[in-house]
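Hello again,

I reread your note about wanting to compare the complex against the isolated chains. To keep things tidy I'm splitting this into two emails, and this first one only covers the full assembly. Below are the input lines as submitted, including protein chains and any nucleic acid or small-molecule components. They are followed by the predicted structure of everything together. The single-chain runs will come separately.
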Amino acid sequence: MTPGTSATSGAPAPATGSRRMPEKRQAIARAASTVFGREGYTRASVDAIAAEAGVSKRTIYNHFGDKEKLFLSVALETAGELTEIIAGLADRHLHKIVDLEADLNTFALDRARAVLGAGDHYALGRTIRAEAGNIPTEVLNAWLDAGPLASQRDLAAHFGRLADQGLLHVEDTELAATQFTLLTFSGAADATFYGAIHLPEAELTAGVTAGIRAFLRLYG
Amino acid sequence: MTPGTSATSGAPAPATGSRRMPEKRQAIARAASTVFGREGYTRASVDAIAAEAGVSKRTIYNHFGDKEKLFLSVALETAGELTEIIAGLADRHLHKIVDLEADLNTFALDRARAVLGAGDHYALGRTIRAEAGNIPTEVLNAWLDAGPLASQRDLAAHFGRLADQGLLHVEDTELAATQFTLLTFSGAADATFYGAIHLPEAELTAGVTAGIRAFLRLYG
DNA sequence: GTCTATAGAACGATAGAC
DNA sequence: GTCTATCGTTCTATAGAC
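Full-complex prediction:
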């Protein structure tokens, strides 16, 4: 094997043995994200990840060193994915306001569905939360900063703009964003264990609606 | 715990081989709670639990069947422990109000410290949350009902009483209790991954204070 | 004498690492 | 593909309780 010293060819090289195979690495990362998210860290076996990625175990060890490094790498690399999705939702629903309460409601609902819904957008995030006590502080902070905190800063910026337009009465935009998330998201996150179990749609909409009403009593 | 069939006598019965040994079972349950809470489900070995309990592995299997049953039993049996602690705090701080904002503040702070603080009051709860996807719905619901939901109902009752006294303006006491928890607790729970990492005292008090102020703007 | 609980060794499977 | 460690589980023998 010894992949580093195999044929040098600069050609596209679809076959195995090329000098660098970023697509293999990416396949491993994707597979690891899937399996870690589905099984959790300890239950996920390197065998299962290799099978999911369609590579041999040895390839994983060559690329990532060991299981822990693989997990931490994937945790860091995927930290920003959901942030961008949520930023897109905020831009779509909060950029041009037509009905403040309705627009906030739709944004909050879409965000909750994106994070907690059936898809595995956040499956790895669940595992990261579960393993928080075993993750080095720097990696944890990097994940927080590229993930949840980034979404919060983005939301605070939106609220600042809405305040400038006179649609909201906000002094501390960061605090308003935090409390918006608490009132419209954290309840559902807690009730579903961050998406691990299903929440009936009616309960989700009821919780979000009540949260939006409280938020507008505070800042409307 | 084990309400109906507790030990009949006051006799010490130190020797081995007695017909029923509930104190061994309790030692196992305590040890399992500790080790599961500290290590998580998959990392916790039956060996480690046996060592912590001062008991042989075989004894664990005789009492609980297998590792999964042991975990689920302990999860159910310890569900109400923290609930009673929090109920005591609520009774202490919310029964006789002298300064509404200060009393709510103290209660919220004490509760957050009790749940998220260094002690392992909630360590097993963290593991239960992490394993939610692998826990049978009925067990999960029983844990929720004896734990977080029970605390919430208790808090709602307090708020109902305070509303009757004219100290709060609350229509839906359950909703008020939910939003109180969201505004004064969930932020810290989220930031610490339910107590897995430490939160500086200053940040905790700042978050709680801001949450109480918002709550009183909503219901004061 | 029989029953039950205990301790500690032993087994089979699995997973991480090379 | 192989090695090695570990884990969940089971088996065997011992000893007190009825």
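For quick reference: The mean pLDDT of chain B is 90.

B.
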